[in-house]
Amino acid sequence: MSDTGVPARKSAVYLLDHILGEGRLMSELTGAGALDKLPAEDRARASRLALDTLRGLERADRLLQKHLSKYPPLTVRNALRVGTVELCQGAAAHGVVNAMVELVSRHPRLGHLKGLTNAVLRKIAADGPEAWDALRAPRLPKWLRGPLVQAWGAEAMAAMEQVHFAGAPLDLTARGDAQAVARATGGVLLPTGTVRIAGAGQVTAMPGFAEGDWWVQDAAAALPVRLLAPKPGENVLDLCAAPGGKTMQLAAAGATVTAVDDSAGRMARVEENLARTGLTARLVVQDALQTTGQYDAILLDAPCSATGTIRRHPDLPHAKDGSEFGDLIALQAQMIDHAWRLLKPGGRLVFCTCSLLPDEGEVQVDEALVRHTDMRADLAALECPGIEPAWVTQEGGLRLRPDFWADRGGMDGFYMACLRKAV
Ligand SMILES: C[S@@+](CC[C@H](N)C(=O)[O-])C[C@H]1O[C@@H](n2cnc3c(N)ncnc32)[C@H](O)[C@@H]1O
């Protein structure tokens, strides 16, 4: 890692410029190699700085506003934001200020703003972390906050924003004995069987990673397969499978799994994950709507707004504006109808999305139940260990929100329902 911390901070500012300026997602930028030239430690630091800054963006802007008569160009503004977040997290003032001044002074067009950077960050350091702590938890942008307040109410929204701001712990799904994984990793076992670790370090260095004893999967994301309850030897279709968290759960239960995803790049991740865990599945790179065959059980983890994953992906509300959600909602309905044709009589389909929008959950299932007279919501499937009755919805699905289990570190927002086909 560099002594000055300038390369990691410069990369964090680069990420923010593209997320906030061009609406790119962090995963797109890192996938395209944005951090590849940095040593591993700097890469981790750059990502952490960018994510922490996105989580605290509203607070950073409120503090900076006091010391700026007009906004400087985006790159300098982002350097000030990163510096503010670091200072308010308690980093040593001289290190942060020197690094940010150096970063700005080296910029080919904005070097003249190094004096401003120095003066503003010194004032932020003098304000101290108390000024930061006195501000409310950052709110989601209006385009997303509006529909979520309408769906869940203002109080629940504020609770979700608190959890978004806090970030997420590391959750693991065990290939076999979850208790043993909890012991080996120093984690706690949640009531639903997920192992949760607070303050985890590098994932690949943790006990059991190389042996494939577990994989990273949010506690909420582990539940759809529990609802499906695959049995050994059953023919199970995993539609929209990559990167394969649920594929591995299905395979670990002994099912004969066909995993379909239309992204060859993402399917390569499924292959790697299966190889590491020693599990097997037939992998097919294909549009889910072109899939054929007849299956005992189907898991449909449909593409969605991903608004349930903001704890882990605070870039999403800043990079998106909701304009593509209508197309996703239409595609989800098409996928439910297609999956229904591939399901044997008496079989079950678990539909799920990592979304907080009822249009991608409760409403999808309500409407599917009207379109398919041979479909019913299977309430018995929801009786899994740890699932709380309050999470069950009117149409017979499960609604999970980030503020559920807030005292344990929250969970991703998710919707899921088990739909049973008449014999
Ligand atoms: C929510 S992610 C799936 C996560 C995965 N089930 C897991 O547990 O790791 C949605 C996936 O849908 C895939 N996808 C999007 N449109 C698709 C389509 N038309 N056909 C097949 N896969 C699609 C994306 O490539 C993405 O991997």
List the helices and strands and how they pair.
Elements (H helix, E strand, L loop, with lengths): L5 H17 L3 H6 L8 H16 L1 H9 L8 H15 L4 H13 L8 H14 L1 H5 L8 H11 L1 H13 L3 E5 L3 H8 L2 E2 L5 E3 L16 E3 L6 H6 L6 E5 L5 H8 L3 E6 L2 H14 L4 E4 L9 E7 L14 H4 L5 H17 L1 E11 L8 H10 L3 E3 L20 E3 L13 E8 L2
Parallel strand pairs: 5-6, 5-8, 6-7, 8-9
Antiparallel strand pairs: 1-3, 1-4, 2-3, 9-12, 10-12, 11-12
Helix pairs in contact: 1-3, 1-5, 1-6, 3-5, 4-5, 5-6, 5-7, 6-7, 9-10
Bound molecules: S-adenosylmethionine (SAM).
Account of the protein in words:
By secondary structure, the protein is of the alpha/beta class. The protein folds into two domains: 6-133, NusB-like (N-utilizing Substance Protein B Homolog, Chain A, Orthogonal Bundle), CATH 1.10.940; 219-421, Rossmann fold, CATH 3.40.50.150. The chain is 44% helix and 14% strand. The chain has 17 helices and twelve strands. The strands form two sheets. Strands 5, 6, 7, 8, 9, 10, 11 and 12 form an eight-stranded mixed sheet that branches. A four-stranded antiparallel sheet has the order 2-3-1-4, with helices on one face. Strand 6, helix 14 (264-277) and strand 7 (282-285) form a beta-alpha-beta unit. Helix 3 packs across helix 5 (74-88) and helix 5 (74-88) packs parallel to helix 7. The mean pLDDT is 96. S-adenosylmethionine binds next to helix 13 and strand 6.
